[in-house]
């Protein structure tokens, strides 16, 4: 299903390798290219998420007001989305677009020997074999396995950091739930990464490190500005009066 994307990435990686020489460095350069291409999508997703957070109280108000009338609730929410020119999928769509690229990269990096025959895949002797897994290197002793184990730990820790950073914007039970979920996810990544090739771990580690830096210096500022703009727009919006007409009842007739 991802063959055409895999082939594009294969050609890009082959081009990079023609001047980068080291395979690990080629993967790092590939990370930078992909991340730069996805930056506009991530900024769009961040703005949509910020708008959703500002509009959330109003949406909850609509849900509570029409809790006993699902059809009216749906109509009011659709009207609210239309009036505010907001799409609930705005924050998800850019992430969904990334999924084919990530799956294709996983396929390519997991099968490097099949795409580049006769090559030895290393990262400046830091990771002597990018096709090896942490589990497979344990048979060679802890010294040989140590670089792969560090990559594995980074695989989990760098998954945890962005989630914890995002939880700062939440409060109460929601923040606690997000932190707990983040820790559980990081532990799961240890199990998942145990059998992944070092090339995949390297790509993920560098990509997520980029995300952390981007989140601290760019994403947070974009989100704060988007929130401020949306709050200002709502504050200046005309006040709506929700008029509910009462059903006219027939007057009782006097008996003569």
Describe, in plain words, how this protein is organized in 3D.
By secondary structure, the chain is mainly alpha-helical. The chain has a domain at 3-120 and 222-235. Helix content is 73%, strand content 0%. The protein has nine helices and no strands. The protein has helices at residues 3-20, 23-65, 70-83, 93-110, 112-115, 134-137, 142-167, 172-193, 198-236. α1 crosses α4 (93-110), α2 packs antiparallel against α4 and α7 runs parallel beside α9 (198-236). It is elongated and about 65 Å long. The protein starts with a helix and ends in a 20-residue tail after the last helix. Mean pLDDT is 80; it is low at 241-249.
What secondary-structure arrangement, pairings included, does this model have?
Elements lengths: L2 H18 L2 H43 L4 H14 L9 H18 L1 H4 L18 H4 L4 H26 L4 H22 L4 H39 L20
Helix pairs in contact: 1-2, 1-4, 2-3, 2-4, 2-9, 7-8, 7-9
